From TrEMBL:
Protein name in the entry: AraC family transcriptional regulator
Organism of this sequence: Paenibacillus ihbetae
SMART domains with a match to the protein in the record: HTH_ARAC
Keyword match Kinase: no
Top-level taxonomic group: Bacteria
Protein keywords: DNA-binding, Membrane, Transcription, Transcription regulation, Transmembrane, Transmembrane helix
Transmembrane regions listed in the UniProt entry: 305-326
InterPro entries named in the record: CdaR_GGDEF, Homeodomain-like_sf, HTH_AraC, Tscrpt_reg_AraC-type_HTH
Keyword Membrane: yes
SUPFAM superfamilies, per database record: Homeodomain-like
Cross-referenced PANTHER family: ARAC-FAMILY TRANSCRIPTIONAL REGULATOR, HTH-TYPE TRANSCRIPTIONAL REGULATOR EXSA
Domain HTH araC/xylS-type: 670-769
Length: 771
């Protein structure tokens, strides 16, 4: 190994050791991160298990609250109230009254599986009513629905005669008749509530709801299926309510040893973790036993993945380290060989490789400075070449342009400016030495004059009798710059003519907004100069002035599409602005010929015809009217008349589109109002529910409803609820708590606050005012 290591060069060994050290640092950090990830994964699994158990608890509690709410709603049923409050009729069994009550129970429909089996015991008639039939003797009902471990007399004393307040009987099997002589046994929990509510001493009736254990236990089955553990629920006294994945005897052992701490996690001694939470609603305890091995599944996956990636990264890192060490040391060795051969030095005499390279590089730097000095002598030629490339658009990116500008020392002030070209008039072809010399002197005079005009102006020769220039805009407005440039150039033309009798013609391009747009501006300047030479003009000729006589009309496809979109949206102001812009561009900024004017008008008419063919109007007869209006626009009409006719078309189209949108919104608002009046008693009636029913976004529903009614949907729901509550208060048949539940409030406190906010008085005061 020592021999193999010594075969490599010292530079290679230094590089490789450095890479190995760098490679070990992330490996150490990765191991620490791995250990942390294992702990986090275990904690996350426990938290997920606790969340699953808590979710099952919350769903069970919510269903139990719905059962309680159901019994309260049933307690205020008028038919039931008459049966327990009115004296007995001549018919001691009151077949008609009990039958009507039984039929009304079939109207109580719910998606809650907990309400699939319930009964009402009416003490006044010693009868039991279910949604399916009436039992005129309680023993008949008990024969069809017998609870395990209770005789009829015990069931009668503990269930029918004893007062109950939101009471839960522990889990018992009950035998239920599903059809004649056919019975099934099902574990169930029984919810009991005496009527009238809060009648502790003398209940007149009792509601019992038999809750199937399967319906409650299915909410905890996920823990058993996911982790292979068990789950159970016990009441406040420790009686078993339901269980999944565990025997009854073992479940009772855990319920007897349950702790009062909420969210407790502790080992059970059999390789499981016991998770326990307690309900604040009814004091029930929810437990789950999760195998620790199942919780560590994610941690084991992390361990396998981390180990695989670590070993793979280490192996790849070693390979990369060898490759990089070889590549970098090879370059250093190559440099050493070059310098050694140039200086005729043997390998043994080099000594320290880096000192040797440093000395030779210092010599290179000194030679480079000499080269730089030579380049500075050629800098004027480089500057002139840079300006020519700028004018011809030879730079494809702004970064390249800035880099060459920095290299040549040509400053680029600001971002805007104008390009131009100047021609010395009065000379024919440069076919003699005297003319060439005179033109050289003339160009020198003009270039000096341009430099005096603006120090930052970029100037270069463009042929024997032409000079190109770029004038940047300083920190001033474009119109101010244009006036100052025109004044300076006119002064230059006059001064050169007076002092040297040189006639000058200047072509100016449009202003550019970025330095990579100089070529476009210079191209326009050349066109302006050609036009000036062709017409014999002297002085300044701008591109826009030269092109007015041959201009085309302005109507790009983007403007047409924008106009179509604004017309479809009914945006009158924006469409009118676009039309004004088109007329300004074509008839104020341009001098269109008669043919160009006709073509522009025909294009604009075509746009409106496209819109008419799409049939977007509220009134279908308007389509033919719009087409007639478009056909009536003549290309021979005056500009003002054309503007007026197209403006009338825009106004008619936008008004019809707005009317169509308004009618559609009115229908939607009507549907919202009907839905609120139908569902105001639902405490879960929110803006989200309304938007879900209508099929529109919440923000859109709220804004549209506010525009049409002047109030928010939530405020309107409150007004409807309080209005109905006012009617019930005046009838004086229900308590305030009952009215609050009936009009959709979860608590009487929130109902009282809302009532006082809307009516200005409390519900009790409002009822007294009605009396």
């Amino acid at each position: 190994m020592q021999r193999l290591w010594s075969k490599f060069s010292p530079v290679f060994r230094r590089f490789l050791i450095s890479y190995l050290i760098v490679l070990l640092i992330p490996q150490i950090a990765g191991y620490a991160s791995y250990r942390t990830s294992i702990e986090v994964a275990k904690a996350s699994s426990i938290e997920n298990s606790l969340s699953s158990l808590n979710l099952g608890k919350e769903i069970i509690e919510r269903h139990l609250v719905e059962v309680e709410t159901f019994t309260k709603q049933l307690a205020i049923n008028q038919d039931l109230y008459r049966l327990i409050a009115d004296p007995k009729p001549l018919d001691s069994n009151n077949v008609y009254g009990l039958g009507r009550m039984q039929r009304s129970l079939s109207m109580y429909s719910s998606t809650n599986d907990y309400l699939s089996n319930f009964f009402i015991y009416i003490r006044n008639y010693n009868a039991i009513i279910t949604p399916n039939t009436v039992y005129y003797r309680p023993e008949h009902y008990y024969e069809a629905n017998r609870l395990e471990g209770l005789t009829f007399e015990e069931w009668k004393e503990t269930v029918l005669k004893k007062p109950h307040l939101n009471e839960m009987m522990p889990l018992k099997k009950y035998r239920r008749e599903i059809r004649d002589t056919v019975f099934v046994e099902t574990p169930a929990v029984t919810f009991l509530q005496s009527i009238p509510l809060n009648s502790f001493n003398n209940p007149q009736a009792m509601i019992g709801v038999l809750i199937d254990e399967d319906h409650m236990g299915s909410l905890l089955q996920n823990i058993v299926d996911q982790y292979g553990g068990w789950a159970l629920v016990a009441d406040r006294e420790g009686s078993l309510i339901l269980s999944r994945g565990i025997g009854e005897e073992e479940a009772k052992r855990f319920t007897a040893a349950s702790s009062d701490e909420n969210g407790e996690v502790s080992p059970t001694g059999d390789g499981r973790l016991l998770i326990s939470i307690r309900s604040d609603l009814n004091g029930w305890t929810y437990m789950a036993g999760i195998p620790e091995q199942a919780l560590m599944t994610k941690a084991g996956r992390i361990q396998r993945v981390t180990t695989t990636f670590t070993l793979t990264a280490l192996f790849i890192g070693l390979l990369i380290g060898l490759v990089l060490a070889y590549r970098h040391s090879a370059k250093v060795q190559s440099l050493l060989s070059v310098f050694r051969e140039q200086n005729h030095i043997s390998r043994e005499k080099i000594g320290n490789e880096y000192d040797f390279l440093a000395g030779n590089i210092a010599a290179l730097i000194a030679n480079n400075k000499l080269l730089e000095s030579s380049l500075n002598d050629q800098l004027p030629l480089l500057r002139d070449a840079f300006i020519k490339r700028l004018l011809t658009g030879d730079f494809y990116t702004l970064r390249e342009l800035e880099a060459v500008s920095s290299q040549t020392g040509v400053p680029l002030r600001g971002e805007q400016g104008r390009a131009g070209i100047l021609k010395v008039a009065g000379y024919g072809s440069a076919d003699s030495e005297e003319i060439i010399q005179e033109l050289s002197v003339a160009r020198l005079i003009v270039r000096q004059a341009l430099s005096r005009l603006e120090p930052d102006v970029l100037v270069t020769d463009w042929g024997s009798d032409q000079i190109a220039f770029v004038h940047p805009i300083a920190e001033e407005a474009l119109d101010v710059f244009t006036r100052r440039l025109d004044a300076g150039l006119l002064e230059l033309v006059d001064a050169v003519y007076r002092q040297h009798r040189l006639s000058i013609t200047i072509g100016l391009g449009s202003a550019f907004e970025a330095w990579n747009g100089v070529a476009d501006s210079f191209n326009e300047a050349q066109q302006a100069l050609e036009y000036a030479v062709h017409t014999g003009a002297v002085g300044i000729t701008r591109f826009e002035d030269a092109m007015k006589a041959t201009e085309l009309y302005y109507y790009p496809i983007e403007s047409e599409q924008r106009m179509l979109n604004t017309l479809k949206a009914g945006e009158l102001e924006e469409t009118s602005r676009l039309l004004d812009q088109l007329f300004s561009r074509n008839f104020e900024e341009r001098e269109l010929s008669y043919d160009m004017t006709q073509q522009f008008v025909m294009e604009l008419k075509g746009t409106f015809l496209k819109l008419a063919e799409q049939r977007i109007f509220h009134d279908e007869s308007l389509t033919d009217h719009i087409k007639e209006q478009i056909a009536a626009v003549a290309t021979t009409d005056g500009i003002d008349q054309l503007r007026e006719r197209f403006g009338q078309l825009i106004q008619e189209i936008c008004m019809d589109v707005r009317k169509k949108k308004c009618d559609m919104h009115a229908e939607t608002v009507g549907e919202i109002i009907r839905y609120i009046h139908e569902r105001y008693s639902d405490a879960e009636l929110t803006l989200y529910r309304i938007a879900e029913h209508i099929g529109k976004p919440e923000k859109y529903i709220s804004q549209m409803f506010k525009e049409h009614t002047g109030t928010n949907p939530s405020d309107y729901v409150e007004l409807v609820r309080i209005g109905k509550a006012g009617e019930l208060l005046q009838q004086n048949l229900l308590t305030i708590d009952e009215i609050a539940a009936q009009v959709g409030y979860n608590s009487a406190h929130s109902f009282r606050r809302a009532f006082k906010r809307v009516r200005g008085v409390s519900p009790s005061t409002f009822r007294q005012m009605g009396d």
